[in-house]
Specification:
Blueprint: E1 2-7, H1 9-21, E2 25-30, H2 43-50, E3 55-56, H3 64-73, E4 77-81, H4 89-92, E5 99-103, H5 115-121, E6 126-132, E7 143-150, H6 157-182, H7 214-223, E8 230-234, E9 237-241, E10 244-248, E11 262-265, E12 270-274, E13 277-281, E14 283-286, E15 292-293, H8 294-301
Parallel strand pairs: 1-2, 1-4, 2-3, 4-5
Antiparallel strand pairs: 5-6, 6-7, 8-9, 9-14, 10-13, 11-12, 12-13, 14-15
């Protein structure tokens, strides 16, 4: 099969390698222009160049240059794997079998760029991935293939993505491409009555409000680990919180402190009170420091029992 790939980053690289390793001919690789502020080079670009492939970088995929490049590639199918640019319909329809795209949720739920984070933050116990036809709407095209995965009660964003949705997504792209090329697939219109769209899980969304319930805070921290990192502040200094444990208070007598109050600093961690329990911080980062144990963070930031994090 002659494959054109549009993508970026590690997922784009993994998809590229998967098609090559099984013997497909990758006839064009599209990725965004180099970012001068990036701390490391685009891994998909490096991989494509190392393999001697036709590497294409257009400021926009809307222009005739991108469409002509796709047309010249004579691709049978186009695969979209972690795409950061808008891809117009006049481009996606050029390949003989059209284009397929990966999204890390069970569409139509959790459309948008931070689907995994929002699903964890909102307490979902399952998620999944969808391979679909890209449309001019964001994550709104017909569904070709879906795979479901559980979200464990302590799973972080990193665990759900790297342990499940990343490897399963690469395999699903291969499976969907084969189904489409063989004419054995179905295209199911998304049920708009079940749809929801969320934007980026940004710094504002990642802020911890200690007046919330312990389970809400715990889910938020899991949803932001490893990025963007849930955060709070102590005397104006930002503290990012990563690995934590949730401790539920079963009785009135077991309640310690008020929401946002540091109730314990141990040799490994520190605990912060909230409604329904405490959050034990195991890994954190204060200010511009490094990610360290909760105890090391407490020492570096001067965190002491009785202090309050900002609400």
């Amino acid at each position: 099969m002659r494959v054109a790939l549009i993508g970026s980053q590690d997922f784009g690289k993994a998809a590229l390698e998967a098609f090559l390793e099984r013997g497909d001919e990758v006839v064009a690789v599209f990725c965004p222009p180099d970012n001068p502020k990036a701390t490391k080079p685009e891994i998909l670009k490096e991989t494509a160049l190392a393999r001697g492939l036709n590497m294409l970088q257009f400021p926009s995929l809307k222009g005739p240059e991108a469409a002509n490049a796709m047309r010249d590639s004579k691709a049978d199918i186009c695969v979209m794997a972690y795409v950061l640019q808008f891809v117009p319909q006049d481009l996606v329809k050029i390949p003989r079998f059209g284009t397929i795209q990966y999204h890390p949720s069970l569409l139509p739920k959790y459309r948008g760029p931070s689907a995994i984070g929002w699903s964890i933050a909102l307490g979902e116990t399952k998620t999944g991935l969808t391979i679909f036809r890209p449309s001019d709407g964001l994550d709104e095209g017909e569904i070709i293939l879906q795979k479901e995965v559980p979200i464990g009660p302590d799973d972080t964003l990193g665990q759900v993505y790297f342990n499940h949705l990343f490897p399963l997504g690469v395999k699903a792209l291969l499976e969907a491409a084969d189904l489409v090329a063989a004419g054995k697939h179905q295209e199911i219109v998304q049920d708009e009555s079940q749809a929801n769209y969320e934007g980026w899980f940004d710094q504002a969304a990642a802020r911890i409000h200690w007046s919330n319930h312990v389970s809400q805070i715990y889910n938020l921290i899991r949803a932001c680990n490893p990025a963007p990192g849930a955060w709070t502040a102590l005397s104006g200094e930002k503290v990012q919180i990563y690995d934590v444990r949730k401790h539920v208070t079963p009785t009135y007598g077991s309640v310690k402190g008020k929401p946002g109050e540091v109730v314990e600093v141990s040799s490994d961690s520190f605990k912060v009170a909230c409604h329904g329990g405490q959050i034990e911080v195991l890994k954190a980062k204060a200010g511009k420091g490094s990610k360290v144990s909760g105890a090391e963070c407490a020492s570096a930031a001067g965190i002491q029992v009785g202090q309050f994090f900002d609400a």
